[in-house]
Amino acid sequence: MNIRLLPDGVINRIAAGEVVERPASVVKELVENAIDAGARRIEVRVKEGGRALIQVIDDGCGMAREELPLAIARHATSKLPKDDDLSNIATLGFRGEALPSIAAVSRLEIASLQQGAENAWSLTVEGGRAHETVPAAHPLGTTIIMRDLFYATPARLKFLKTERTELGHIADCIQRLAMACPNIAFTLADGEREVLRAPVADDLIDPCLSRLALVIGQDFADNTLQLVAEREGVRLAGYAGLPTYNRATARQQFLFVNGRPVRDKLLNGAVRGAYQDFIGGGRYPVVAIFIDLAPEGLDVNVHPAKTEVRFRDAGVVRGLIVGTLKRALAEAGHLAATTVSQAALGAVRPSDRLYQPELNARGVSPRGFYPRPTSPAVNGLADVASVYHAPLGAPIADTPEATTPPEIDYPLGVARGQVHTTYIVAQTEDGIVIVDQHAAHERLVYERMKASLNQGGVMRQILLLPEVIELEEGLASCLTTRAKELETLGLVLEAFGPGAVIVRETPAMLGEGDFKGLVRDLAEEIAEFGQGVTLQERLFEVCSTMACHGSVRAGRRLRAEEMNALLREMEMTPHSGQCNHGRPTYIELKLSDIERLFGRR
Are residues 119 and 183 in the same domain? Predict the structure, then answer.
């Protein structure tokens, strides 16, 4: 078989297969070209999800007549320095393959007016064949119109998804570029319908957050933590959502490197590592991280579509992301996302069934018809329900109202009662706070355990009567082989026959916990970890399990002093706004919100 050179048309179509995967690929390349041209306004119009038409209009520097044929020539570019140093790329595009690849699989028209030129010029390309350059009427900037994508390679059309799906990919592409460039106005229209309008962010204080709020949502801006850090020439800025503001997928985790939107496993791994202590499995935080570093520390020539990058020192970048996120989360203290309270308000609706008192034979309500609580633990506020029918002037003892200080200017307020022996209701200066006592105490115990480990070990308490716990033989073996590691966590146990262990000491901070359930859960977790993983590697997961079993359980009645002590410790403990599984520990309802519920506003 003889070796031969391929025709230019086939070469261009092969290159197009690497660059042009779908209509969104075309939009990305054309919009990036407009950004590199210094545009301050970019308008994108599509039809049929980009199959029939993609039009990109910008007000950038434009191109001269002699540059138009070069723009569609392979390996021609204006984006490299004069010495063609591939390690010093300061633009979004550089490969010189985008326009010729697009022109090879579509009908392309370029019209442009260069700044300072007298006339605009137009060039038409069909299936890779260019026509003569002709004069055109066009304002400053460039318009590129692509029609009939893949008409020259119709087999590629069957791999495209529905119009709605392809439009979604285009919108996602524009949104990412809009987040990276808040100083540029973006518009996306599908036929006559406007899909996205992002004017120039004119917020003088923080234009980046203003643009992020427009694209991601105002809820993100209301529940975000600012990130600023620098290490070894790598600068990091951006925003991270509170742990209780999370999503079911990682789609809203955005990474921008030197102004370039990229998708990188480094980001996902670093964010997961930073949030692993606060969000349970199956949930993902929302973050937007902007990294800037010298061009020589970055390789952007990794993927034809330029969606991936490679860092020269990936360890520094990952450490910077994890460290900055952890510091911001620690400084957030006990904050929880406002969306939690908004969701609670959304669930509250006026009752359709109003209480109707029983009437006597004359149709008159008997005196004292109001229902008396039958059980404070079920129908009323624990420790407060007892005074519900107290005689006027009778002394009130052992109630939160009587034992708590009158000041309510604490962040989480002062406890006024306990509902269903599970939730603490506290009054703040401008509203109420409802606390899940088990979730809150679980986080407090967890943080205490981590602090003890950092200080040299967890204090232990000796059981007066050692407890024998029967397990499956395999689970018991898993525990006894890790006995030395468990001892550092305050749990001292040893084998007691082939299918049992005996517990002699437990972590002091857990008090009188459910040690049978704790030991069984630990055994199952350790068995799942496998013998190749040390408990030190999964330390936080083990501590979380122990904290869960040692915390105040739902169903336990608390005194006013206990409730207020819990609130004060939450205020002083970092990350207390969410439990170890990522659920909120409290919700706050402002007085104005409650008044709206009752029609007072």
Answer: yes
Name the pairing type of β-strands 224-231 and 234-241: antiparallel
Domain count, the chain: 4
Examine residue 30 and state whether it is found in any structural domain, yes or no.
yes
Q: Are residues 133 and 179 in the same domain?
A: yes
**Helix, strand or coil, per DSSP, at residue 425:** strand
Average pLDDT in the chain = 80
Helix (H) or strand (E) holding 76: none
DSSP label at 323? H
Q: What is the mean pLDDT of residues 272-279?
A: 83
Last residue of a domain, one of 165, 198, 231: 198
SS3 10: helix
Q: Indicate the range of 339-353, 432-446, 489-503, 542-556 predicted with least confidence.
A: 339-353
Two tokens, residue 596: 């709206």
- Return the CATH number at 292: 3.30.230.10
For 547, phi then psi, to 5°, come to: -65, -35
Quick check: is 567 in a domain? yes
Q: How far apart are CA 98 and CA 81, in angstroms?
A: 19
Nearest residue to 270 via CA among 305, 320, 226:
320
Per-residue pLDDT tens over the stretch 507-528: 887 777 667 888 888 888 888 7
Q: Are residues 571 and 428 in the same domain?
A: yes
Q: What is the pLDDT of residues 312-338, one digit of tens each?
A: 888 899 999 999 998 998 887 666 666
Is 166 found in the same domain as 216? no
pLDDT at 393 (0 to 100)? 37
Question: Cα separation of 540 and 547, whole Å?
Answer: 10
Is residue 131 in some structural domain?
A: yes
Residues 491 and 561 grouped into a single domain: no
pLDDT by residue (tens digit) across 528-556? 776 655 666 566 677 777 777 777 766 78
Question: What's the confidence (pLDDT) of residue 374?
Answer: 42
What is d(CA 515, CA 504) in angstroms, rounded to the nearest whole number? 11
Q: For residue range 6-59, list pLDDT tens digits in order.
A: 676 666 655 555 567 889 989 998 999 999 999 999 999 999 999 999 999 999
Measure Cα distances from 255 to 171, 263, 290, 553 in Å.
17, 7, 6, 40
- Asked, for residue 2, whether it belongs to a domain, the answer is no
Same-domain check for residues 58 and 116: yes
Residue 439: strand, helix, or coil: helix
Given 198, 231, 262, which residue is the final one in a domain?
198
The reported pLDDT for the residue numbered 353 is 46
**Spatial CA neighbour of 421 closest among 449, 395, 450, 382:** 382
The Cα 448–Cα 438 span in angstroms is: 15
> Which residues are within 8 A (CB) of 346 and not within 5 positions of it... i.e. 6 or more apart?
none
Each residue's pLDDT tens digit, 549-582: 777 766 788 889 999 999 999 888 888 888 877 7
Q: What is the CATH number of the domain that holds 544?
A: 3.30.1370.100
Whether residue 66 sits in one domain with residue 156: yes
Cβ-contact 541, 383 below 8 angstroms: no
From residue 542, alpha-carbon distances to 296, 413, 520 in Å are 42, 32, 12
The type of residue at 124 is T
- Domain extent, residue 54, equals 8-198
What span, in angstroms and rounded, lies between the C-alpha atoms of 102 and 307?
17
